[in-house]
Amino acid sequence: MTETREPALSPPGGHYTHSVRSGELVFTSGQLGVRPDGTHTAGLPFEDQVRQALANLLAALRVSGAGPADLLKVTAYIVDVANWPRFNAVYAEVMGDARPARTVVPVPELHYGYLIEIDGIASVAAPR
Amino acid sequence: MTETREPALSPPGGHYTHSVRSGELVFTSGQLGVRPDGTHTAGLPFEDQVRQALANLLAALRVSGAGPADLLKVTAYIVDVANWPRFNAVYAEVMGDARPARTVVPVPELHYGYLIEIDGIASVAAPR
Amino acid sequence: MTETREPALSPPGGHYTHSVRSGELVFTSGQLGVRPDGTHTAGLPFEDQVRQALANLLAALRVSGAGPADLLKVTAYIVDVANWPRFNAVYAEVMGDARPARTVVPVPELHYGYLIEIDGIASVAAPR
To answer: Which of B5-9, B36-40, B65-69, C14-18 has the lowest mean pLDDT?
Structure first.
């Protein structure tokens, strides 16, 4: 198991690592819309929160040598399922041709008042 | 990574693939009780929704050559934890001898007004 | 796939196995604060529930030969996100140097009135 950290990500706010790799598999922690400097996008429109959370997800993957095309599964936790179409639109734009398996889970609330949190599982071609 | 689609499943309603395989592992998207023709079971009794969601989960696995016995982990999202016993009863009937690890997660709501959503991780014996 | 049970854990209360191993990967079911004798900690303070749920998670891993350091990903479901700091404190104490990827998911409720449920994915060095 290799634990990695990404300077482009704000340091973990709790007892976890942003991205853990074991063999070909990469697991990320749930990513909120925290900017690299630690400030929050929680007060901004939903779309901005999604963009920052996805940027953080991709940054967490990157340190393990993985990109969007390597994602096998994404789980997105959203407050208010009415936000589903807006989430899907931003997600499609950011992910492009990558269409991993995905589950969108409505939740009553998220940490710091965020409306979106995202984690992922990826596979990279060979252990390094 | 092999992305697959199952004709017996309604096409994905968003930017995702129903089932993704990487090596021996298969990841499915969250499956709602959508019929293959795209119509919804959301207005039907809870048990009917569970049966359709499980049928979709198994269909998603099937295109990757996996069946119930190959499931390692299932996560079921349900509205109202009081539905737990009814979920477990239908699940046991459908799964039979297969008893993968499972987490049942109560949620405040689901897309299209569904009361159940299910995803899974499976392992098939050898990559193909 | 090897299905395992842990005598130190209360038998599964539904159609699932506490811990499933496939090759190097171990998947656990969602663990509540159920004592080995089947009695509940649901009425006790939040911290006690967290300790018992984590003890059960580690017991479930142990039967597959995995320990805290083998965990790749943990997902914790908590009622009331205000409990996040208290969860993180107990979790850090129990996990010690192990810092797997982690997602904390606020939920509206949990089975038996619990305030915390935890599952995990681990990797053990070689199949046995």
So the answer is: B5-9
